[in-house]
């Protein structure tokens, strides 16, 4: 049996209808922007392996730091014990986050970082003796697949089987010039019930790279802050340069109470989650009453290897060459979008930083399950490019080391798809 056949005999893949799925493509090696299959066929990873990779695959600097850490200390219990990597990572990250962020809580992935944030907010009010249990979120939001994270995400085909079990959330539209005043009134009316407002800043990734303006986010954040509603900034996707600045919240003035990170945190090397919070939230859990403790943790909390990968990724991220690459990609995307926008098959495009999304004109049929999506996906694979359209939306989300030549190759493939499919 080849690798794909052995896989299908024993493995159940994420978001995959196993009855109709084609065999998976076995990848045996990664280098820079590319991954390679058994036969040596090269694929440009234009989606950063589900948005996690920022410095390229199997980066030698991260690999060396991880290997060194493995030989020193692979893991240690994090209750009652600590280790240098966890401390250094918290110190260095808090130093580059908004200065409201004072404490770091580690977990395992983006969804767990969200679970921790939600629990911090709900218990914050509980510890203060106030009944605030409602959470405010955007329609079409995506915050993860565990039950709490799913509850604060928009209801869709992905949540349908569980909808009756998800806790109640107040969903609002994305803000724009027309609805911002109504949204503020709505929030004011609910404020005494609202524990927190959770949002994906500037870009709703899973919803189809839906984007909204920083000034509208600022208006909502400032209003929530004035009304005493805690702000959870989910930077799991947008963190570490994706939007052009280090963090999406760098585009607004009002700063969040809680921030969540994962995806780019380790540079895409391994699973890891981080939730940071203000002194005010942390202090609400300090008590002689044990009931006020944050009773949350995971076996691998603050795993030293994940901390080492994150520290190495942070070194690379803070190298000025990385910001230059980000700026270069932003400019290249802009020029391509300007050029392609006139194409009759393009309904519209949108860009935030290194994320470029092109909406394919479909005359109304925009289903995730549409066959256009599958045709596009395979067209790009044949060309050695990994792009995973979300329905009729083609998005490019490259690692920052992607070269101009690689970007031009990806753009040319998209133009060819527009002309031939
Ligand atoms: C991917 C994602 C998550 C969930 O992270 P996982 O590591 O996949 O659990 C949460 N929030 C946002 C905005 C994401 O894009």
Automatic annotation (TrEMBL):
Pathway: Cofactor biosynthesis; biotin biosynthesis; 7,8-diaminononanoate from 8-amino-7-oxononanoate (SAM route): step 1/1. HAMAP family: BioA. It comes from Mucilaginibacter achroorhodeus. Belongs to the class-III pyridoxal-phosphate-dependent aminotransferase family. BioA subfamily. One of its GO terms (molecular function) is pyridoxal phosphate binding. Substrate binds at residues 50, 142, 263, 297, 388. GO terms for biological process: biotin biosynthetic process. The keyword ATP-binding does not apply. Homodimer. The keyword Cytoplasm applies. The record marks 15 as: Participates in the substrate recognition with KAPA and in a stacking interaction with the adenine ring of SAM. Keywords: Aminotransferase, Biotin biosynthesis, Cytoplasm, Pyridoxal phosphate, S-adenosyl-L-methionine, Transferase. It is found in: Cytoplasm. This is Adenosylmethionine-8-amino-7-oxononanoate aminotransferase. GO terms for cellular component: cytoplasm. The gene is bioA. Pfam families: Aminotran_3 (PF00202). It catalyses: (8S)-8-amino-7-oxononanoate + S-adenosyl-L-methionine = S-adenosyl-4-methylsulfanyl-2-oxobutanoate + (7R,8S)-7,8-diammoniononanoate. The modification N6-(pyridoxal phosphate)lysine is found at residue 263. NCBIfam families: bioA, PRK05964.1.
